[in-house]
Write a structure and sequence with these properties.
Layout lengths: L1 H13 L1 H14 L2 H36 L4 H37 L3 H13 L3 H17 L2 H15 L6 H39 L6 H23 L1 H47 L1 H4 L3
């Protein structure tokens, strides 16, 4: 019994730096503001990515509608556009998956079980028999909480300092392209509706019973023309000029977003946790290696 108390006393005297760090990290782990700020940043980033995905899906659907028409000049010209939009959509799906995983991990880091285990292992390190295991587990758990919220704050800082685009430019470009697309589409539909109303009014004024053979032939031509114009209106010919003009920039922005997400949420986290563990391991060798 006396030996146990002596061991605990020696541990307190010799490892006060490590114990002070444990106390500091434990306070951060239970600090709600750190988690809330980190979650808010990821949530805003996720919302931008999800909105971009939704807008892209609408444009992609419209492109495939045009490409599926049986009008050679229309469908042929938009097959390439639809394929590129699909490729960009897949990039955005990957970006949303990456940010979604980060959100889930951050939420799991706030688990009550994890916080209870932190307290348990802090207590266990005062017993010489369990000290080595407890300290190593503390290193692992501290890298998760407050490690993940701290890393998220680091990502926020780096993205601001390096001016990395995390979806803002893509969202703005897609919103503008989508608005221009709808404007052109509505204008074309209005124009077609007015033309059809005018033709219908002319037919009513003539009276079908009094139409000459030439007039009937003209009516047949007009009817065929109307059908072609209906198909063209479905293809949104003018509207797709907006798409084709913006497509190259949209694809580039989508690729940049995926690259940034891969770097910030896949590559750097592994480096962060590896270096963090090594730093603590070598910073307190007597606590970790000798016990």
């Amino acid at each position: 019994m006396e030996s146990g108390k002596t061991s605990q006393g020696n541990f307190l005297r010799k490892q006060w730096t490590w114990l002070s760090l444990c106390l500091f990290l434990l306070i951060l782990a239970f600090l709600p503001q750190l988690y809330q700020n980190s979650f808010s940043f990821l949530e805003q980033t996720s919302e931008k990515a999800l909105l971009s995905l939704g807008l892209w899906a609408e444009l992609n659907t419209a492109a495939y509608s045009a490409a599926s028409l049986k009008i050679p000049l229309v469908s042929g010209s938009f097959q390439g556009t639809a394929a590129l939009l699909t490729q960009g959509f897949q990039y955005l799906e990957l970006a949303n998956l990456l940010i979604g995983v980060q959100l889930v991990l951050l939420s799991l880091s706030q688990s009550v079980i994890l916080k209870v285990l932190l307290l348990l292992f802090i207590g266990m390190q005062f017993f010489e028999k369990h000290r080595s295991f407890a300290i190593k587990m503390l290193l692992l758990f501290f890298l998760v909480n407050p490690g993940l919220p701290l890393y998220t704050q680091l990502v926020k800082y780096l993205s601001q300092e390096a001016e990395l685009d995390l979806g803002g430019k893509l969202k703005a470009e897609l919103t503008q392209t989508h608005a221009d697309f709808l404007e052109k589409k509505k204008a074309q539909e209005k124009k077609l509706s007015q033309r059809k109303s005018k033709q219908l009014k002319q037919r009513e004024e003539k009276g079908k019973d009094e139409l000459s053979f030439v007039q009937k032939a003209e009516d047949k031509v007009i009817s065929s023309t109307d059908k072609v114009e209906d198909d063209l209106s479905l293809a949104f010919k003018d509207a797709f000029q907006v798409l084709k003009g913006a497509l190259s920039n949209l694809i580039q922005l989508a690729v940049n977003l995926v690259v940034h997400f891969l770097l910030l949420f896949i590559v750097l986290p592994f480096l962060y946790f590896f270096l963090g563990y090594k730093l603590l391991y070598y910073l307190f060798p007597t606590s970790i290696k000798n016990n």
